[in-house]
Model the fold of this input.
Amino acid sequence: MSQKHFPKGLDGRQRDNDGEIRKKRSDTLVKTLRGEYGQDFAKGYRSDAQLGTVLEREGVESLHKLLNKPKQSV
Done:
């Protein structure tokens, strides 16, 4: 079965059939996202934690908001 490849947006993100930018699934593992966003992504969370858990604990609704959340100084 072949898959259609949709053009990437200006920011390099893949788009869905309707042209919207794809969202990361909540069951995506932190270790997968660290490969894309760097080893400091979701610091303090285990690599087998799911994105949905991280979002819930951090009090944000999306990966985009998590990435743009100001870092708290300790």
